[in-house]
Design goal:
The complex is a heterotrimer of chains A (about 210), B (about 400) and C (about 160).
Chain A: H1 4-22, E1 46-51, H2 67-71, E2 77-87, E3 93-103, H3 112-116, E4 122-125, E5 140-141, H4 143-146, E6 147-149, H5 150-156, H6 158-205
Parallel strand pairs in A: 1-6
Antiparallel strand pairs in A: 1-4, 2-3, 3-5
Helix pairs in contact in A: 5-6
Chain B: H1 2-6, H2 8-18, H3 25-59, H4 75-85, H5 96-113, H6 131-152, H7 156-187, H8 192-197, H9 213-229, H10 241-244, H11 255-279, H12 295-316, H13 322-349, H14 354-376
Helix pairs in contact in B: 2-3, 3-11, 3-12, 4-11, 5-6, 5-11, 6-7, 7-9, 7-13, 9-11, 9-13, 11-12, 13-14
Chain C: H1 3-21, H2 25-45, H3 49-73, H4 87-108, H5 111-114, H6 125-134, H7 137-158
The chains are: A alpha+beta (about 210), B mainly alpha (about 400), C mainly alpha (about 160).
């Protein structure tokens, strides 16, 4: 019948209209500055440096190996290695970056720096409100702006962060176990050596 | 008491006019009426723009504008300021005089058309015998403005849009006038005031023409033709944004564009007002015991209802193509209007009773189904099957 | 000869003159529309409501649109016409002045002007309708037939041609 489709269509629109006042899923607007959509776990926008613990300088995982600087396709990372070393999460002394700059206007969020970093030091942030009023200076993120804590990392990418933490903790445990084994072996060797000088002259005399 | 409330505007006008000396009174009375009509309907235009945007937004699962005032109600103010301060660009090759006169040629006739619509009891600005003829004559003058706008812009697409718009408006004028003629035939007068008076409620029986078979069919035909006359969705091909950018008002900016917009909406109000007058009982209540509500309140309530209906239809239906439009007008609406005319005659000559309801109902519904089926033939409307890549 | 008659008459004459003398064809069509509107105003001034509104409805609403469509669809190039001050133009104006003088002389010396005007019969739409349906029914039907013939002719011309077998 002519007009049947029209009536059905009008019923559907009326349902939408009334439903938009009553149910939430018929009004999908997110009023931006006041409300924000929660980001997906796999979202990425711009890299940041992870630090463990409380101190952004001491806990920084980056050892200035400069692999990300070399691998970055638009070459937006600028690293200057430090002259001295500081201990990393295992305890081994490592270099650290004295200068670590990323240019926001050049970075294309390809995540290659994250993929190649052997130290889980640089990860992708989900922060997108990075507009500034200055085209040059304020678009350059320095080490202080880039360093964010591991707790923040766990907040934005929980699954990834827990995997990374598990791996790092395993490494740490392995290193500690190795150190303990070495210490024990050294202690045993020292003990043996302490016991050996008395046995050796006897062995040498005969 | 209710009578005083009903006639409050009329008494107010008489009081103001009585202040002036006798030789000035005619002019002052006319000026007051004109100022009142312009103020009320321009205010209604502002309200309708915001209602439309918010209504369409809610239909489309989103909020409408809500930044400018509480719930976005001051948005028309922002729009008006924008229109007034935008630069008025006229193309160098355009015909300046005609380009300038086109918006005027739209706005003046539609405001004139509002003069014969009775807004309340004793509240028609002009009460002439041939009021309905005046309305249609003035409505026909708006087509000229469409042509002037399209041609003066010296733009191929503008001209194309104007031609299509005029073809559409001319085609739909015939069912529009024929539906109105049905009512004129039954009432016996061309004056809107008398047509409203003929729809007075009668105890428990509503006297509206809507509640008769020919009136119902006539109302639907009139409303469809009115939608097409005001170039409103789903008949807005001439001004569709995705089809032909803005059609015949591509080259207009700033205040002239706002005038076109105003003219379209006021045209919509005028033709809705006429639909209310002809079919919905004008300022009468449906039942006699509801007559205590003031007459203008009924009129504006019905007008807002019709506006809501137009917004609803706009949010629901996709745009009709030009050939679908013309087919619909000439092959469906024109025969239906003629059948409606015959039905009205049959209704009049059979006495009151159940028999005439049945006969007229069949007379209206039969051709509707037959003509409707004929519109569908030649279309391949099978269910679509999709093949997905494996 | 009231002020309103003078104004409306001047408007009509100006429109008609512009329609003859403007260069751009579409401008001429629009000026003709002004002349039609002036005529409608004259009818209304004589209290002939039906004829006045029908003039607007038919002439301004339909005939003017028809003229502009015709101008557009058979559009010649936009060249403006040559100067009007040719010999033929001057002769034309002279003849028009002579004819106008003759007509004025004839009308002003006719008996119609000397006697007072008879009372205007009220011609409401109802009366016109009555007359159309009783006294003038034959012309009405013939006009209807004529319009139907025109409509059928238009449809036949616009119909797509059948493919040659």
């Amino acid at each position: 019948m002519l007009g049947e489709g029209i009536i059905k269509g009008m019923a559907e629109t009326a349902r939408n209209f009334v439903g938009s006042y009553v149910t939430k899923d018929r009004l999908t607007t997110v009023q931006y500055p006041e409300e924000r959509l929660p980001q997906h776990q796999a979202a990425r926008n711009f890299p940041f440096l992870v630090f463990d613990g409380k101190d952004p300088e001491l806990g920084l995982r980056c050892v200035a190996c400069q692999i990300c600087e070399k691998e970055c396709p638009p070459q937006c990372i600028y690293i200057v290695k430090s002259k001295d070393k500081k201990p990393d999460h295992i305890g081994k002394p490592q270099f650290y970056p004295a200068v670590f700059d990323i240019d926001t206007s050049v970075c294309m969020s390809c995540q290659i720096c994250v993929e190649v970093c052997p130290f889980e030091a640089i990860k992708m942030d989900t922060e997108y409100e990075l507009s500034t009023t200055d085209r040059f200076d304020q678009l350059l993120m320095r080490k202080a702006d880039l360093a964010k804590s591991n707790e923040y990392y766990q907040q934005i990418h929980p699954t990834e962060a827990s995997e990374v933490d598990a791996r790092l903790n395993a490494e740490k445990a392995k290193a500690e176990a190795k150190a303990k084994a070495e210490a024990e072996a050294k202690a045993k060797a020292a003990a043996l050596k302490a016991a050996a000088p008395q046995a050796a002259p006897l062995a040498g005399k005969t | 008491m209710s009578n005083a409330l009903d006639q409050i505007f009329v008494t107010l006008k008489h009081a103001i006019v009585a202040w002036f000396p006798a030789s000035w009174q005619g002019l002052v009375s006319a000026l007051i009426t004109v100022a009142a009509i312009i103020a009320v309907f321009a205010g209604l235009f502002a309200l309708t723009t915001i209602l439309e945007r918010k209504g369409l937004g809610r239909i489309q699962n989103r909020l409408g504008p809500n930044r400018v005032g509480p719930f976005g109600l001051l948005q028309p103010v922002a729009d008006g300021l924008k229109a007034m301060t935008k630069e008025d660009i006229v193309p160098r090759a355009a015909d300046h005089i005609v380009h300038f006169l086109a918006p005027l040629a739209l706005v003046v006739p539609v405001f004139l058309a509002l003069a014969v619509v009775p807004i309340g009891r004793n509240m028609a600005a002009i009460d002439i015998d041939a009021g309905l003829l005046f309305f249609f004559a003035v409505g026909a003058a708006t087509e000229l403005s469409v042509f002037m706008a399209g041609w003066s812009s010296r733009n191929k697409y503008s001209l194309l849009g104007a031609m299509r718009a005029i073809a559409q408006m001319i085609s739909y004028e015939v069912p529009l006038i024929l539906s109105a003629v049905t009512v004129v035939m039954m009432v016996g007068s061309l004056s809107p005031v008398k047509i409203v008076a003929a729809q007075a409620p009668d105890g428990w029986m509503p006297g509206w023409h809507l509640f008769t078979p020919w009136g119902f069919a006539g109302f639907l035909l009139f409303l469809t033709a009115a939608t097409a006359e005001s170039n409103r969705s789903p008949f807005d091909l001439p001004e569709g944004e995705s089809e032909i950018i803005a059609g015949y008002y591509i080259e207009y900016s700033g205040f002239k564009f706002a005038l076109f917009f105003l003219g379209e909406y006021i045209g919509l109000f005028a033709v809705s007002g006429l639909a209310i007058t002809l079919f919905l009982g004008g300022w009468h209540a449906p039942f006699a015991f509801l007559e205590w509500v003031p007459s203008y309140a009924w009129f504006f309530g019905k007008l807002l209802g019709l506006i809501a209906l137009f917004i609803w239809i706009r949010g629901t239906l996709p745009r009709l193509r030009m050939d679908q439009l013309m087919n619909f007008a000439w092959k469906f609406m024109l025969p239906m209007s003629l059948v409606n005319l015959v039905t009205a005659g049959v209704w009049h000559f059979m006495g009151a009773g159940v028999a005439r309801w049945l006969v007229c109902g069949v007379l209206v519904a039969g051709p509707y189904f037959v003509l409707g089926r004929s519109l569908f033939e030649g279309q391949k409307l099978s269910k679509r099957t999709y093949r997905y890549a494996d | 000869m009231t002020a309103s008659f003078a104004i409306i008459g001047l408007l009509t004459i100006a429109g008609a003159t512009a329609a003859m003398s403007l260069r751009n064809l579409v401008h001429c069509a629009l000026a003709l529309t002004v002349a039609f509107a002036g005529l409608a105003a004259l009818y209304l001034q004589l209290d002939a409501q039906f004829v006045g509104f029908a003039q607007i409805l038919v002439y301004v609403g339909a005939v003017a649109i028809l003229i502009v469509f015709a101008v557009l669809l058979t559009r010649s190039s936009e060249t403006p016409g040559a100067s009007r001050l040719t010999r033929a133009g001057i002769w034309g104006v002279a003849i028009a002045v002579v004819v106008f003088g003759l007509l004025t002389a004839m009308i002003s010396s006719s008996p119609a002007v000397r006697h007072p005007a008879p009372p205007i019969p009220a011609a409401t739409v109802r009366d016109i309708g009555n007359q159309l349906m009783t006294k003038y029914i034959l012309p009405l039907e013939i006009i209807g037939l004529l319009l139907t013939a025109a409509l059928i002719g238009a449809v036949i011309i616009a119909m797509p041609e059948k493919e040659a077998e």
